[in-house]
Amino acid sequence: MAPSKQYDEGGQLQLMMDGDRIEEEEECFESIDKLISQGINSGDVKKLQDAGIYTCNGLMMHTKKSLTGIKGLSEAKVDKICEAAEKLLRKSVVRITTGSQALDELLGGGIETLCITEAFGEFRSGKTQLAHTLCVSTQLPLHMHGGNGKVAYIDTEGTFRPERIVPIAERFGMDANAVLDNIIYARAYTYEHQYNLLLGLAAKMAEEPFRLLIVDSVIALFRVDFSGRGELAERQQKLAQMLSRLTKIAEEFNVAVYITNQVIADPGGGMFITDPKKPAGGHVLAHAATIRLMLRKGKGEQRVTSGGIMDAKD
């Protein structure tokens, strides 16, 4: 009997699991190797891999002009390769449950792959707790509203705690050690280090089934490494490059990207708002995120987000 999914009275997701083995779900991005099944020569596929192109999604991010620049690939070959890749790229968005019924409903089913979801709010508003919950729920099979994949976690503020994963895994009826084994963790110390970690992830994601990338927080190191208005333009340019890389990873490997963001004082917030705040990063970050969630503290252990309420333990 397959595991079933249900919500309790508080809106928490709970799973009833038996000892049967869950069948492996289908991979959600198309490896470049699959072009061979579409009649593309294996030698030409090897040339693409040598050029750093590991998936069909990644292939479609290159112009035909740049592809013909690869030694041994003629214009006719490139046309045939692109046509084959387009045939393979027939996939739907995967929605990963947040573990909170209210938040899932607000998001239309959960955190989406192929895009960036940003959560911003003050300290202890639930951003990192949601990241820890997603580390677990992403590993659920697709039919249980998970992503059936691994998680990459880039930590810029030292907020990741393996011990916080344990009770979440138990709540979902999963083995905590197995869950932790499927989380690839890296601590970033500068904005350059953060960007280089993203570059290294591409090859890793081409080899293993990842479904979620977390950056907690995306802005912290930029605020440290760039200070004052004199460096603001350069900071925003580097931030835009980072966000562009995150978008490409989301689209190339069909992963959900969840980023947390800090808030800053908003002098133009209005006279009727007490202590107005706005997300850091300006328009660059605002345009990059497909979905933006504002989190704030509610009563007791509750956290309030744009139109929905979730428990802090979710």
List keywords for this structure.
about 325 residues; 14 strands; nucleotide-binding; DNA polymerase, domain 1; 8-stranded mixed sheet; two-stranded antiparallel sheet; disordered N terminus; 12 helices; 2 domains; ATP-binding; disordered C terminus; Rossmann fold; alpha/beta; nucleus
Description:
- With 314 residues, this protein is α/β, with parallel strands linked by helices.
- The protein has two domains: 33-88, 5' to 3' exonuclease, C-terminal subdomain (DNA polymerase, domain 1), CATH 1.10.150.20; 95-309, Rossmann fold.
- Helices cover 37% and strands 20% of the residues.
- The chain has twelve helices and 14 strands.
- It has an eight-stranded mixed sheet, sandwiched between helices.
- A hairpin with a 5-residue loop joins strand 1 (4-7) and strand 2 (13-16).
- Helix 6 packs across helix 7 (162-171), helix 9 (191-207) packs parallel to helix 11 (232-253) and helix 11 packs parallel to helix 12 (282-288).
- The longest helix is centred in the last third of the chain and has 22 residues, at 232-253.
- The protein starts with a strand and ends with a strand.
